[in-house]
Amino acid sequence: MSDQHEVAAGHTGGRESRFEILYEDNHLLGIVKPVNIPVQEDATGDKDLLTLLKEDVKERYAKPGNVFMGLVHRLDRPVGGAMIFAKTSKAASRLSESIRTHAFQKVYLAVIHGQLPGAEARLEHTLLKDPKSNTVRVVREGTPGGKNAILDYTVIGSEENYSLVKIELLTGRPHQIRVQLSDVGCPLYGDQKYGAAVNRPGQQIALWSALTRFPHPVTREEVELLSLPPREYPWNLWPVKVQKQAVL
After folding, report:
1. pLDDT tens digits for 49-63?
2. Distance (Å, rounded) from C-alpha 227 to C-alpha 208?
3. Maximal CA-CA distance, the chain
4. What does the domain layout of the chain look like in residue ranges?
5. Distance of CA 68 to the CA centre of its chain
6. d(CA 165, CA 179)
């Protein structure tokens, strides 16, 4: 992490933000996404993160006009952690290009039921989304509408019949981590949609965007956003130091 990044990360404008800011300059805004807030407007009508961020920037900088906030990647509504947004259209375009060329790294932590086969491996599935039910399922390769989904996992440790897993996405499909791990018999703790048989209603899903790393769209220097999960069950089964070493 460069000195420039550290200086920018401490810059939050004229007023205090309502969000935990990991990085900010004239081009980018990196925050910790709170859990259970939709990134974009959805059918619930609940206030979405994009709208809230625009309001936050407008208030902090006393901007008179509209605020641009570009969405370049997504997190499911119940998932929290590091997210980066673009404050200009140029930054949005260049970040999107970094994603297309695999220069944009996304690392997650997850707590799953049971134990995966092997300490580390690659999972590859074909996924098909049903927009009506907003669910995704594994289908045979070649199925019309199916998309290839790839992730790499590393098991960090196991406690109380749960495993802490580091996951690096190589593709960005809807619900990808949740569906792929459920398909191999290890649904995420708290996942009501893809692990209802082993999770209790009301449990918070244990999936967290822990690290986002990419070249700055203007300076090309490496930007690194780190966010560790809250210190509550089941995350607190593993020390912070272990989690941080795992993702860096």
Report:
1. 999 999 999 999 998
2. 8
3. 55
4. 3-247
5. 21
6. 15
Burial grade of 184 (CB within 10 A; 0-12, 13-18, 19 or more): middle
What confidence score (pLDDT) does residue 14 get? 57
- Tens of pLDDT, residue by residue over 71-111, are 999 999 999 999 999 999 999 999 999 999 999 999 999 99
Q: How many C-beta neighbours within 10 Å does residue 86 have?
A: 21
What would the two tokens of residue 43 be? 């059918």
Distance of alpha carbon 57 from its chain centroid, rounded? Answer: 21
Q: Which segments of 69-175 does DSSP mark as H helices, in order? A: 89-100
Q: How far apart are CA 175 and CA 240, in angstroms?
A: 26
What is the identity of the amino acid at 153?
Y
**What's the one-letter identity of residue 193?**
K
Amino acid identity at 173: R
CA distance to 24, 59, 197, per residue, from 153 (Å): 30, 40, 23
Q: What are the structure tokens assigned to 141, written together?
A: 């390769």
* Residues of the chain falling short of pLDDT 70: 1-14
Confirm or reject CATH 3.30.2350.10 for domain 3-247, answering yes or no.
yes
d(CA 106, CA 43): 27
The 8-class DSSP code of residue 188 comes to B
Name the residue with tokens 């920018």: 8
Q: Would you say 70 and 173 are in contact if contact means Cβ atoms under 8 Å apart?
A: no
Q: Distance between CA atoms of 86 and 194, rounded to whole angstroms?
A: 31
